[in-house]
Amino acid sequence: MAIHTFKAESVLKSGLSVENKSGKFTIIADEPPSMRGTHTGMNPVEMLLCALGACLCITARFFARSQQIDLQDFRVELEGDLDPAGFIKGTQGVHPGFQQIRTTIYIKAKAPEEKINQFVEFVKKRCPVGDTLLQGVPIVENFVVQCIGIDKEPA
Amino acid sequence: MAIHTFKAESVLKSGLSVENKSGKFTIIADEPPSMRGTHTGMNPVEMLLCALGACLCITARFFARSQQIDLQDFRVELEGDLDPAGFIKGTQGVHPGFQQIRTTIYIKAKAPEEKINQFVEFVKKRCPVGDTLLQGVPIVENFVVQCIGIDKEPA
């Protein structure tokens, strides 16, 4: 199968709010007032948890039938721990990102319990966002700078 | 500073659509018809790209003033490559997750170009979602199984 490239775009709006688009869909990110935001959307690390939870849910539905699971309900609670000193202060040795993510999957299905247990293990391994987070991923970064005004200011 | 725990919840709805909540905010994930979805939202890997783009934008705004950058515009284009064989077929040796993510940051600011370049490097290093994706993160997974009906079926 050919490699597929997924795309998105994020544009900084007023304050800390960000308009994020992929295809025809838009989701807003922001921070609460305690972080100087205006709370018009969840923040990016919460969005990351949602991407993981959504991916586990979709993977479950996608494969339930072929794995002989009559899936009735599937729900994921997610938590992620982060030391704010890494982001806010840039403290040496403290990563700005998540130190650990915890998920609790609630599954209700018509199938023997052992088969459901095996199915959940299958879903965890096959989930693309979970795999990306567990393995880590190289990020190739480019940037285009438009520098304005600074040389035209009076001395 | 104390460790902060962020939370979210994802609930599988009809078909492949998923309702993802964090605090008072909800974002919908789904897949296009080509993946058997009903296209009511972007998919989880696109949501992951949005989380990264949003985090770069918020990090830029959060630190611009203290880094003496008069930020005018900040925008990120994101691409992520994935081999569908890893997810759909479970092909041995093919990861289901992203193999590479590429970002292009467009920044417009009133500051000398060298200072803007340094600022972009600072933003990339300090971004919590970028750090999580680059480093990878341990995921502790629990699950609660509710097994129904299967033993009550007539033999």
Task: Kindly list the characteristics that best describe this protein.
homodimer, 155 residues, alpha+beta, GMP Synthetase, Chain A, domain 3, two-stranded antiparallel sheet
Question: How is the topology of this model organized?
Answer:
2 copies of one chain form a homodimer.
Chain A lengths: L3 E9 L5 E5 L2 E5 L14 H21 L5 E13 L1 H6 L8 E13 L2 H14 L1 H8 L3 E9 L8
Antiparallel strand pairs in A: 1-2, 2-3, 4-5
Helix pairs in contact in A: 1-3
Percent of sequence in beta strands of chain A: 25-35%
Based on the structure, what is the oligomeric state of the protein chains? Answer: homodimer
CATH architecture of the domain at 43-135 in chain A: 2-Layer Sandwich
Poorly predicted segments of chain A: none
Q: What name goes with the CATH superfamily of the domain at 43-135 in chain A? A: K homology (KH) domain
**Rounded radius of gyration of chain A (Å):** 20 Å
Number of helices of chain A: 4
What is the H/E string of chain A? EEEHEHEHHE
Q: Which strand order spans the largest sheet of chain A, edge to edge or round the barrel?
A: 1-2-3
- Largest sheet, strands/sense/barrel of chain A: 3 strands, antiparallel
CATH class of the domain at 43-135 in chain A: Alpha Beta
Shape of chain A: elongated
